[in-house]
Amino acid sequence: METLFRKHDRLLDLTSTKIIRQWANSINWEARMMSIRGAKGVGKTTMMLQYIKLHYKPLDRSVLYVSCDDNYFSTHSLLELAEQFYLSGGEHLFLDEVHKYENWSSEIKEIYDFYPSMRVVLSGSSLLSLVGGDADLSRRCVNHDIQGLSFREFLHFYKGIEMPIYTLEQVLEEPAALIGEMNKAGRAVALFHEYLKYGYYPYYLDNETDYYLTIQQVVNRIIDDELPRICKVDLGNTRKLKALLTTIAGSVPFQVDISKLSVISGIKRDTVVAYLGHLDKAKLIHLLYSDLKSVKRMQKPDKIYIENTNLLHAWSTTPIQAGTARETFVVNQLSANHIVEYRKSNGDFMVDGKYILEVGGGNKDYTQIANIANGYILSDNIETAIGHKLPIWAVGFGY
Questions:
Q1: Predicted TM-score of the model (pTM)
Q2: Would residue 394 be called left, alpha or beta, if left means φ above 0 and alpha means ψ between -120 and 50 degrees?
Q3: Do residues 94 and 168 both lie within one domain?
Q4: CB-based contact 228:241 (threshold 8 Å)
């Protein structure tokens, strides 16, 4: 136990609290049990350590952070850890990378049931399920899903530009305040194009030279390790999954042809549909549907995007199309807080069943959304709003 506390102390010493992400303020850290899910590299561990550092005094032994891939667990169980921690006065246990511990859900359930006074925070892959397996934790555990940095957070973290959060309704219906403030702070178009290439993952400043290589390594770990272990993906198909992801990254977002993807990847048609679902949950791609209530959703998506533009740049083996990057950005940023559906005509996307959005370059006109009251154009390479035509970067301030 003391070895774990020494590691805990060392990690806290190395953790900076200079900038705290907005997600941290929306989490109920006092819940008896809560989980933080997200793609590898979006800052889950940092968020946990920052909370501990800000709310507990140094060497406070009532709180403990442990990564579940620690060597400690080669000879000890989670239950043993919880028992020792509780008997030593422990009150708040932070378990990181919980998905790496075999049969974690059943032991977590026992911890919840046997130690009612102890609060537990779990962190794990986006693939982490609280339902099923050896224990159903859905009624016991409050779940929080987090994403990488928004455009607003990129400006704060990397450029020192502090901007408030704006709701989508504020952006679309009253854009003047946001646009005016942003244009005073910096050249939004140039900053936006930087964000498309780097800054979504919070480790760019510490690893500028190998940023894309690091992203590639993260993807490889997800496909080679997490998908086989958590989703039972056949190990023999992991290389094919990478080829499938490369195909998607190198394509202009298209209406999905499962048979074509099956031929390209060498994976059976039904298996392709299942694997696309796994890649979506792993936050490597984003699946869009034209009607979320339709039974077709259970069969295949209507459009596929790489999850974010940094991943798009890191994984694609061909030059990135400007239109692909724009649409990927919009889907990524809005999906954090909204329901985004694909439009087969009269606009590119429908958001929350209310707003119709058309995405394009600076010369994009109203042809596609003519006579649609809640229709808006999100245009690249512009800094001001004219009517229902707004700068595309304006939707990057939602969190």
A1: 0.91
A2: alpha
A3: no
A4: no
End-to-end Cα spacing for the chain: 38
pLDDT at 243 over 80: yes
State the alpha helices, DSSP H only, in 15-159.
Answer: 22-25, 44-55, 78-87, 104-114, 151-159
Burial grade of 224 (CB within 10 A; 0-12, 13-18, 19 or more): middle
Same domain as 344, residue 276: yes
> What is the extent of the structural domain holding 38?
2-145
**What are the counts of helices (DSSP H) followed by strands (DSSP E) for the chain?**
16, 12
**pLDDT higher than threshold 60 for residue 134:** no
Q: Indicate if 367 and 268 belong to the same structural domain.
A: yes
77 shares its domain with 162: no
- Cα–Cα distances (Å) from 45 to 77, 148, 296, in that order, read 21, 13, 37
Query: What's the mean per-residue pLDDT of the chain?
Result: 93
Q: Give yes or no: residues 175 and 36 share one domain.
A: no
Can you give 219-234 as a three-state secondary structure string?
HHHHHHHHHHHHHCCC
Do both 295 and 344 map to the same domain? yes
How confident is residue 264, by pLDDT bands cut at 50, 70 and 90? confident
Q: Categorize the per-residue pLDDT at 194 as very low, low, confident or very high, splitting at 50, 70 and 90.
A: very high
Last residue of a domain, one of 111, 145, 179: 145
pLDDT tens digit sequence for 204-225:
887 889 999 999 999 999 999 9
Q: Count the domains in the chain.
A: 2
Q: Which of 145, 174, 194 is the last residue of a domain?
A: 145
Within this chain, do residues 166 and 220 fall inside the same structural domain, yes or no? yes
User: What CATH number does the domain containing 23 carry?
Assistant: 3.40.50.300
Mean pLDDT of 56-72: 97
| Statement: residue 291 has pLDDT above 90 | no
CA atoms in the 13 A half-sphere facing the CB of 86: 15
